[in-house]
Amino acid sequence: MRLLHQDRKTGEIKFQVDNMDDLWHLYNIIDQGDLVLAVTYRREEQKSDKVRAERGEKRRVFLGIRVERVEFHEFDNRLRITGVIEQGPQDLGAHHTLNVEEGDSLSVVKLSWKDSTLERIKRALEDSKRPSIVFVALENDEATIAVMRQYGMQNLATIYGPSGGKMYEQRTDDDYYLEIIDKVKQLVTEGVPLVVLGPGFAKETLVAMGRQRAPEAFKRVFIYHTGQAGMAGVHELMKKGMGAEILEGSRVAEETNLVEKVLEEIAKEGLVTYGPAEVEQAVRAGAVDTLLVLDPVLRERDVEPLMKAVENGRGRVMVISEHHEAGRKLEALGGMAALLRYRMGGA
User: Fold this and answer.
1) Grouped pLDDT means (10 residues each) for the chain, 347 residues
2) Interatomic CA distance for residues 277 and 81, integer angstroms
3) Angle of CA points 37, 43, 49, to nearest 5°
4) CA distances (Å), 145 to each of 20, 104, 126, in order?
5) Looking at the structure, do residues 40 and 104 belong to the same domain, yes or no?
6) CB 261, CB 320: distance < 8 Å
7) What pLDDT score was predicted for residue 164?
8) Residue 29 maps to which CATH number?
9) Counting beta carbons within 10 angstroms of the beta carbon of residue 210, is it exposed (0 to 12), middle (13 to 18) or buried (19 or more)?
């Protein structure tokens, strides 16, 4: 994500969307009631003698819409922002949906910007400089290829081996591994680590062939044994932990480690509390060392005062994405949890 313009007087910030992670950050930045301005396409109604107007050609226009709904479409690589047209050359008061994709720019205007939102923007700018991680989780007959995004793990492809079904009867082991290697070559760029994992020996076979056929893509490869392949294997590895040289600067790994720490403390009845009411009580008592808040909670509740209170007390606040395994575990705990400095009565 890039900041193109900021006007503190009008409350406008203009963003450049560079990748999928930026769309997720904007999903959490844009609120109902904000004014969003962007170039879009809108169909012009053609006047005629007919009872119904004929639908004209879509034309490129610059519109400002007052936001009613924001949807993050991970699998379509787009953000949909729906609202009422407030600025533009036509159809003022009508509804319109902005489809924001990689490469687009847009301005967001707020009456006031929360500290937590400005912190998210700062984090998005910093995270955009960090490399992602490519995962290949495979067995002899099936491979899953995924990428660690800032918002979580994205499953990109499933590739089947020679025993993956009737349609693959003419397929050989070499075909299977070469297809995986071809996909990896498209994803691994300079500085991006490749993690190959799974049970059995298929991972070693892939790495040996990859080093011969695509040495640049397999230059920085790490091999891990897991009990499962597929996304289950990736989540198993994330929970178990990877080497520091791979995860350095990884937001998802940091979030995963904190949520696992919360679960460990719960299991041993340690220095932890969870659930909105319990966490709020701990914050007011000044007992919170680290506050964990699930992304949707920021959109649905006013937790800004709690976050400020923790930071003012020299504590740490971590916003957890709902789009990976750690986020789902925190959601099961009520969307909020806190690691404590000392044991409270009943905690």
Assistant:
1) 92 92 89 96 65 68 96 83 94 94 95 87 77 89 89 86 60 87 91 91 96 94 94 87 64 83 95 95 95 88 88 90 84 96 73
2) 32
3) 140
4) 17, 27, 26
5) yes
6) no
7) 53
8) 2.30.30.870
9) buried
Torsion sign (Cα): 307, 8, 91, 43: negative
Does residue 346 lie in a domain region? Answer: no
Contact criterion met (CB below 8 Å) for 233 and 298: no
- Give how many domains the chain has, as a whole number: 3
3-state secondary structure of 345: coil
What is the per-residue DSSP string for 139-203?
-SSEEEEEEE-SSSEEEEEEEE-TTS-GGGTT--HHHHHHHHHHHHHHH--TT--EEEEESSSHH
Sheet holding 105-109, edge to edge: 2-7, 12-16, 105-109, 35-46, 54-73, 78-87, 95-101
Last residue of a domain, one of 192, 219, 247: 247
What the block records as the tokens of 139 is: 């067995």
Q: What local confidence, expressed as pLDDT, does residue 347 receive?
A: 44
268/214 same-domain check: no
Residues 239 and 272 in one domain: no
- CA nearest to 100, candidates 124, 82, 88, 85: 82
122 found inside a domain: no
Q: Does 191 reside within a domain?
A: yes
Question: Do residues 128 and 42 touch, judged by C-beta distance below 8 A?
Answer: no
Q: Domain range for residue 281?
A: 258-340
CATH code of the domain covering residue 157:
3.30.420.60
Buried b / exposed e over 82-99, threshold 16 CB at 10 Å, is ebebeebeebeeeebebe
Same domain (yes/no): 241, 268: no
pTM of the model: 0.64
Could you tell me the CATH number of the domain that includes residue 269? 3.30.1330.30
Q: Which tokens hold the place of 237?
A: 């590895």
Considering the domain boundaries, does residue 118 fall inside one? no
